[in-house]
Amino acid sequence: MNKEVEIAIRRNQQIVVRNTSGESVTGFPERSADSSILLLRTVQGNLWIPFEEVEQVTRLLSIRSHHLSSMAL
């Protein structure tokens, strides 16, 4: 899970985080001084989630339109 967060930070990708109570939040992960806390930048503001409460992390990938024009569908 931390690996997916690290990849998302490096690639500036959004992630969806589901916590142990089933709630989900979407945002951009950022590096935190505390490695046991996930810092997530959301539209509502920054959110700190302890990694022990994170159940699932999903990276959201953007497909740029110039790639679609060269693909045969």
Overview of the molecule:
The chain is of the alpha+beta class. The chain has one domain (2-69): SH3 type barrels. The protein is 21% helix and 44% strand. It contains two helices and five strands; from the N terminus they run αβββββα. The chain has a five-stranded antiparallel sheet. β3 (37-42) and β4 (45-50) form a beta hairpin. The longest helix has 10 residues, at 2-11. The radius of gyration is 14 Å and the shape is globular. 11% of the residues are buried.
Structural class of the secondary elements? Answer: alpha+beta
**How many structural domains can be distinguished in the coordinates?**
1
Rg computed from alpha carbons, rounded to a whole number of angstroms: 14 Å
Helix amount? 10-25%
Please provide the count of β strands.
5
Biggest sheet layout: 5 strands, antiparallel
What is the CATH topology classification name? SH3 type barrels
Helix tally? 2
Q: Which CATH C-level class is it?
A: Mainly Beta
What is the overall pLDDT average?
A: 89
Q: What's the shape?
A: globular
Termini separation:
33 Å
Under the CATH scheme, the architecture is Roll
* Helix and strand run: HEEEEEH
Strand order of the largest sheet: 4-3-2-1-5
What is the strand content? Answer: 35-45%
Which spans of ≥5 residues are poorly predicted at pLDDT below 50? none
Keywords:
73 residues; alpha+beta; SH3 type barrels; five-stranded antiparallel β-sheet; 5 strands
